[in-house]
Specification:
Number of strands: 0
Strand content: under 5%
Keywords: Membrane, Transmembrane, Transmembrane helix
Largest sheet: none
Main location: membrane
Number of helices: 2
Structural class: mainly alpha
Subcellular location: Membrane
Radius of gyration: 18 Å
InterPro entries: ABC1_TM_dom
Mean pLDDT: 94
Pfam family, one: ABC_membrane_2
């Protein structure tokens, strides 16, 4: 049971790191989209928009994993 709690902590830290990478991807994509729009470069703008939506879908996956991890952590903590 103690091993499960340690695994939960490691998973939580990993998800926090993934949220950091997600934030970087999201804001980099927005920056590319805005720069492409300002310069009139449709290819760069479209690339930034696509990157934004990929980042949003990535967030959905990571957020779902975070909710599962928190619920599992609560359950394991109550049983420990």
């Amino acid at each position: 049971m103690f091993g499960a709690l340690l695994l939960s902590v490691i998973t939580s830290v990993r998800l926090t790191v993934l949220f950091t990478y997600y934030s970087n991807d999201l804001y980099s994509a927005l920056q590319a989209a805005f720069q492409g729009a300002a310069a009139g470069n449709d290819a760069v703008r479209d690339s930034g928009i696509h990157g934004f939506w990929v980042a949003i879908w990535t967030f959905c996956v990571i957020a779902t994993l975070q909710v599962i991890q928190v619920m599992t952590d609560l359950y394991v903590t109550q049983r420990f």
